[in-house]
Design a protein that fits this description.
The complex is a heterotrimer of chains A (109), B (327) and C (97).
Chain A lengths: L1 H24 L3 H24 L5 H31 L5 H14 L2
Chain B lengths: L1 H12 L3 H21 L3 H26 L11 H18 L11 H4 L1 H12 L5 H9 L1 H22 L5 H14 L4 H23 L8 H19 L1 H7 L2 H24 L14 H44 L2
Helix pairs in contact in B: 1-2, 2-3, 3-11, 3-14, 6-7, 7-8, 7-14, 8-13, 8-14, 10-11, 11-12, 11-14, 13-14
Chain C lengths: L1 H21 L3 H25 L5 H21 L21
Helix pairs in contact in C: 1-2, 2-3
Chain lengths: 109, 327, 97
């Protein structure tokens, strides 16, 4: 029991840190959001499962399951809301900008 | 600790109020983490829900009315800086005389605290000592806090109250329906989450005896759920669900409930807010008294937060309509 | 192992604060605050287990909800046309279906 809990915690922390590195190093808002949105939910799930395997009693287990379910609902929704709000307010992804620049520069010889 | 100072400096220096609000949300979170690290669970609970949650939402609604950037300051406030520095250093000099934090011989730990810690279980019968101190030993102070919150709500009502015309309501409805179709996923998820949040608020309210919680936190969570509903589904639908007069009555009922518990104790011959007068067995009386006053606190806090939010947002909507009608 | 996980989460929180202070656009900052909030939930749960006080899980649940509501609130009010004297010329693009 202890070893499996430690394994889950390890995987969870690794995913968490990689998401954090991603938010610092990626070039554009949408790529950063991709890094955070994916790793955040999975890392939370792994760490919570690791905590659940540490043999707590009934009520604590129930609360951990509640936090897990809530995070599974809330995190993707928040990422979706953030991305759609950014797109609605005309924040363009960088790839589009580069393509537009290339098209403009190639159409004006 | 360094984070708090850094975030505070960033808050003061930035001119964009929106970013300031988000930084103050982080500030509230850092404080809550501090309290958790110091093993103060109830305070962390209240700080997390109030400082990081409701404050952010209410301040956001406030800055929709004042504009997004701060006016540039016209003069260098050197005199104010000097006064603050002198007062601050005098205060710090005063604290050097105080006993060290956490020593066992401090006067704080010798007189009042042992009585609470040792006798709370027999006299009040509630495992959470913070609740027993807040609601039973110091119930009068808590009464003052509830009245302060109620007065703040009344102040907002007196200054910002908006009269709704019926034709405005129909017009706003059509605008809202077209504008909010884009929030489809959010609406569905919110519909699933809001009942759970309300249920959790009730759990926190009644579980305050045994774990962290109590009336203040439960009221804030309840109000946050209602504010979420109002944001996602439009103000007019929210006003139809939660009537303005109903919520005002709710606030008053909270304070009256609290006061009447005290008055009943008076009528039974004991002191104001002495719960042992409420039933034959004094410990059961304490339980009943704590239950009732926490309920009163929860009612008032919920109602006042919702009143403040609805009034700010309704006022902004009126301003927007006026701006639209006179281009 | 719990302590190592706690330190990892603290490191991620510092990274989130860096991005919140430094991020060029508004949405970077909102993203960083959202990340900070989720990591706080994990931090409180882990601290509860480390210090042997499982009552902290209540705070974690509250904080997850409050984080969600705050992010939705901030997004709702980030449309520039809601602000007084804000960018009146900024048209919001209709969603391309």
């Amino acid at each position: 029991m202890d070893i499996s809990s430690a394994v889950f915690l390890l995987i969870g922390s690794f995913l968490c840190v990689s998401g954090g590195v991603g938010i610092l190093r990626f070039p554009d808002f949408y790529t950063r959001m991709h890094a955070v949105g994916v790793t955040e939910t999975l890392a939370t799930a792994m760490i919570l499962i690791g905590l659940m395997l540490q043999n707590p009693d009934g009520l604590v287990l129930l609360k951990l399951i509640i936090i897990l379910l809530m995070t599974l609902f809330i995190s993707p929704t928040a990422s979706h809301a953030l991305a759609s709000a950014a797109l609605q307010n005309n924040l363009m992804p960088e790839l589009d900008k580069q393509e537009n620049n290339e098209k403009e520069s190639s159409s004006n010889p | 600790m360094a984070f708090l100072v850094a975030v505070a400096i960033a808050i003061v220096r930035m001119k964009d109020l929106f970013a300031v609000i988000m930084l103050s949300g982080i500030y509230g979170l850092l404080s809550a983490s501090f309290f958790v690290a110091m093993d103060a669970v109830d305070v962390a609970f209240t700080e997390a829900s109030v400082g990081a949650g409701i404050s952010t939402l209410l301040m956001l609604v406030a800055i929709t009315m004042t504009g997004r950037t701060e006016n540039p300051s016209r003069h260098k406030p050197l005199l104010a800086l000097a006064v603050v520095t002198v007062t601050g250093s005098l205060l710090i000099y005063g604290t050097l005389d105080m006993p060290y934090f956490g020593l066992a011989q401090d006067p704080v730990h010798l007189h009042v605290a042992p009585r609470y810690i040792n006798d709370s279980m027999q006299e009040v019968g509630v495992p959470n000592i913070v609740t027993s101190v807040l609601a039973s030993y110091r119930a009068f102070d808590t009464f003052g806090e509830v009245v302060v919150i109620f007065t703040a709500g009344m102040g907002v009502l007196a200054l910002l109250s908006v009269v709704r015309h019926p034709k405005d309501i129909a017009e706003i409805d059509s605008i809202n329906k077209s504008m909010h179709e884009e929030h489809l996923i959010l609406r569905i998820v919110a519909k699933m989450l809001i009942p759970f949040i309300l249920l959790f608020a009730l759990y926190v309210q009644f579980h305050g005896d045994y774990g962290p919680g109590g009336g203040f936190q439960a009221g804030v969570i309840f109000a946050a759920a209602i504010i979420l509903y109002a944001m996602l589904f439009g103000m007019s639908t929210a006003r139809r669900v939660i009537n303005q007069s109903f919520i005002q009555m709710f606030a008053a009922i909270g304070v009256l409930l609290y006061g009447s518990v005290g008055v009943i104790s008076l009528l039974n011959g004991k002191n104001f807010l002495d719960y042992s007068a409420l039933s034959v067995d004094p410990v059961a009386g304490q339980h009943l008294g704590i239950l009732l006053i926490e309920l009163g606190v929860g009612f008032t806090v919920t109602a006042v937060m919702v009143i403040i939010f609805f009034n700010f947002a309704g006022r902004r909507k009126d301003q927007q309509n006026k701006e639209k009608n006179e281009p | 192992m719990l302590i190592a996980a706690t330190i990892a989460i603290l490191v991620v929180m510092i990274m989130a604060i860096l991005r919140a202070v430094w991020g060029p656009t508004l949405y970077d900052r909102i993203l960083a605050v959202n990340l900070f909030g989720t990591k706080t939930v994990l931090l409180i749960s882990l601290l509860g287990f480390v210090m042997g006080r499982p009552e902290f899980l209540d705070i974690a649940i509250v904080y997850a909800l409050i984080n969600f509501i705050s992010v939705i609130g901030v997004l709702h009010y980030s449309d520039a046309h809601i602000f007084k004297g804000g960018d009146q010329q900024k048209k919001t693009m209709k969603k391309n279906s």
